[in-house]
Structures are given as C-alpha cells and as structure tokens.
Amino acid sequence: MTPKISVIVPCYKQAQFLDAALQSVLVQTYTNWECIIINDGSPDDTEKIARNWTTKDARFKYGYQPNGGLSSARNAGLKMATGHFIQFLDADDYLAPQKLEASINRINLDHGTNTVITNFRMFDTNPAQSSEPYCKLSQQLFTLDKILYHWESSFTIPIHCGLFAASFFEKFRFPEELRAKEDWVMWICLYKTNCKTGFIDQPLALYRKNPNSITQSKDMLPDVIKAYQYLKTPLSESQYQGLTISMLSRYYTSAVYFKTKRNEIKASNTYIVGNLIKRGLSKLGILKPFKKVLEWIYTKK
C-alpha cells in the first residue's frame, strides 16, 4: 500500500528556514506525497521561495492567506489536502529522509493503525548536528490520560513526529482563537477518538531550537487559560475536573518553588549586603546617580 501523504507547511516570517524544510520533503525516500506551503500573510520572501519550489516539482502546492495565525494556516492546508494521511511540518523544522516511508511501513504492518509517531532530536542551525531532545518519547506516553494530565510536566510531542489519518481532520480543525497550545488540543482530541498508534523509536523528526518561537514565550498564561476553556467541550465532566486539579496542582507547585527560591535569595549574604549598600546610597542622596553610572558601564561592555 502506497497511499498519498499531504505534507502541510505553514510559514510566517520563517522564509530563512523554508528552503531547508522543503528540501527535507523533496529528498524523502517515499515519493507519493504532495507538499502544501501556506503563506500566512508573511512579509518576507515566503512567496518567492514557495513559487521556486512549485516550479521545480509539481508535487509542491502553494496557498496564500492574510495573516491568521498558525492554526488558521494549518486549517487552510487541510482544506487543500488530497492525501490519505497528513504530515505537518513547521517551516523551521526538518524531516529525516526516511520519515514518510518508515511511517507508511509501520501502518502496513497493522492496517488498524491510524497514527504513527516517531522520536525526535533537536538542532540549532544544522540538522546534521543534532542533540538529545528535552524528552524521550515512548509508546507508554500515547494515552489520553498521559497527554491530558502530564503534558509539559513530563513530555510533549512535536507535531511533525506524527503521521495522521486524514479522516481525523474531517471532524477536527485547529482552534483559530488559540495563539498557542493548539498542538496539545489536537493531541487530546485525537486520543479522545481512541486512535491506534504505531511508534517508531527512531529520531525521524528534527526540531529547531528557536528562542523567538511562541512556545518559548514567557507570556503564555493567557493562552493556557484559553486552551483550558476550549477543552471543556470535548472532554467529559470527570476528565475536565481532573484537568482542573492537575493544572492547579502544577501551578501551585511552581509558585511554592519560586517563593522558596526568592526567600533563599533574600536570606543570602550577597542580597543583605546589597540592600545595605542601597540604603546607604539612598540616605546620601546618590542612589539615582549611582544607578546611571552602572547603566553607563554596562552599555559600554
């Protein structure tokens, strides 16, 4: 069985990485694919680069939309997709050459399998120089309970680790009101369907370390709350209550940890001496000039 795979590549302000991502699709050992590039209103060279690829190989398709966010761009790609299976690939990430073939081979071993997940590694600039991931995936993690209650505290699954039956997306679309956590929502909704997962313990997906990505943002709490509110509909009452308890416990533990660390810092000799110096400078009326001198010194470094 050699079913068609639709690879969906949304791109917004990632033109500098797009060629490498698309090259990783072109060199796949499995050849029955289409690659749908969605330009999410990107102000860079995304369109020019995408057009070059559609000229080079007819399997590359191009779509444009005004900026609507990652979920909206993925949904646009799903509308264009004609494959039996879906492979997502963010424009700054990378697929190993065997990713699609290995996934289809795993499905062919058991035709009941409708999702295949591989392991992954991380890289900075060169996929050939990858490093150990922030978590190690295993078959035991792929359950609704694990994804619902242990996501981020123990593991996450980069979306391009997965290959998905297109039939799942006949009913599911990424929630466009979410700016982040849309992957988590998708995995939860997927495992609500009792999907059968095949696992390949090989790093066939490569994840770029990007400090500017939304997943690295410090201001994600509003997005977490939105995702939590969204999940009230697909989850049962008991599952939603369990998620509430899990999230409260996690954030309480974090708050206690940071409060303890803050108290340790305040009790340190360095902090005490620094406070004494600050008070002394304030009494002498030279605290503000002293701060300006320090700022000048640091800007000259």
From TrEMBL:
InterPro entries: Glyco_trans_2-like (IPR001173), Nucleotide-diphossugar_trans (IPR029044). Pfam families: Glycos_transf_2. CDD domains: Glyco_tranf_GTA_type. One of its GO terms (molecular function) is hexosyltransferase activity. Residues 6-158 form the Glycosyltransferase 2-like domain. Transmembrane segments: none annotated. PANTHER family: GLYCOSYLTRANSFERASE (PTHR22916), UDP-GLCNAC:BETAGAL BETA-1,3-N-ACETYLGLUCOSAMINYLTRANSFERASE-LIKE PROTEIN 1 (PTHR22916:SF3). This is Glycosyltransferase 2-like domain-containing protein. It comes from Flavobacterium crassostreae.
